[in-house]
Automatic annotation (TrEMBL):
Cellular component aspect of the GO annotation: ATP-binding cassette (ABC) transporter complex
Compartments, as annotated in UniProt: Cell membrane; Membrane
Top-rank taxon: Bacteria
One Gene Ontology biological process: response to zinc ion
Membrane topology: Multi-pass membrane protein
Annotated source species: Desulfomicrobium apsheronum
Protein keywords: Membrane, Transmembrane, Transmembrane helix, Transport
Transmembrane segments: 12-33, 53-78, 90-112, 132-150, 219-240
Major location (coarse): membrane
Cited InterPro entries: ABC_BtuC-like (IPR037294), ABC_TroCD (IPR001626)
UniProt protein name: Zinc transport system permease protein
Keyword check for Transport: yes
Similarity comment: family membership: Belongs to the ABC-3 integral membrane protein family.
């Protein structure tokens, strides 16, 4: 076991798992409570355009994907805010356009030979050390924003109209939440991949909500649950030679089902 942990790629994977879990626990809770899962899905798939752009321009994937995805999230947030009847359509368009843009750019990239599996389904064991520092900075950004505006996010999450009537900058916070979702999505892509990123954003907070109604407690429990799922999934992936993203989500799904079953049985006794 010690020999495995001494390997640099495993140390990077563990650090990436910890940092991604922190972002998932905090932002995932806001996404679930505010019923923004579909929006997060749109942001996640739009991120593929950022991946394609990075390879096409020969730039580092993580910072390029962050910039592209944040821009897409801003467009979706500003276009959909206050337009509930059109928000699904706008998100759907951006979802498809981002994927198409990424695929076209990858097709146009000379000598392109990158394995897409690592971006579609995650490759936690392949996270480079340089990305760890970027993920740390992104986590610090998320923590600073949420701590500073926590009370306002709390009001926004449970009653938007009340929040607006008390002077909370609802529009700004909504846009900011989508920006943080974009940042988190790009981080989690390396853990679970584009296709499975929504699961890691939603399963831990939903599990946490089984045991608490408090937003900050949900964030804490979701972070711990996400970390547990990442570590267990990483172990399963390494020992059974499976895709890390799929292994993590399989563990997370199993964990949620078990927790839900235990909670249901507890209520009946």
């Amino acid at each position: 076991m010690n020999s495995v942990l001494s390997m640099e790629f495993m140390q990077n994977a563990l650090m990436a798992g910890v940092l991604a879990s922190l972002a998932c626990g905090i932002i995932g809770s806001l996404v679930v409570v505010n019923r923004q899962v579909f929006m997060a899905g749109g942001v996640a798939h739009t991120a593929y355009g950022g991946v394609g752009l990075a390879f096409f321009l020969g730039l580092p994937v993580l910072p390029c994907a962050v910039g592209f995805t944040v821009l897409a999230a801003l467009i979706m947030a500003l276009a959909s805010f206050g337009r509930s009847e059109r928000s699904d359509g706008i998100i759907g368009i951006m979802w498809a356009a981002g994927m198409a843009f990424g695929i076209i750019l990858l097709d146009l990239t000379p000598g392109y030979n990158v394995d897409l599996m690592s971006y579609l389904f995650g490759s936690l064991l392949a996270v480079p050390a340089s990305d760890i520092w970027i993920m740390l900075l992104l986590d610090l950004f998320i923590l600073a924003v949420v701590l500073f505006w926590y009370k306002d996010f709390l009001s926004l999450s449970f009653d938007m109209e009340f929040a607006r009537s008390t002077g909370v900058p609802v529009r700004m916070l909504y846009v900011l939440m989508q920006v943080m979702t974009a940042v988190t999505v790009v981080m989690v892509i390396q853990v679970a991949g584009l296709i499975l990123v929504i699961a890691l954003l939603t399963i831990p907070p939903m599990l946490a909500e089984l045991f608490t109604n408090s937003l900050w407690k949900t964030m804490v429990l979701a972070t711990l649950a996400s970390l547990f799922f990442c570590l267990c999934g990483l172990a399963v992936s390494y020992h059974l030679d499976l895709t890390s993203g799929a292994s993590i989500i399989a563990v997370a799904t199993t964990g949620y089902v078990v927790a839900w079953g235990c909670k249901t049985l507890w209520r009946r006794t």
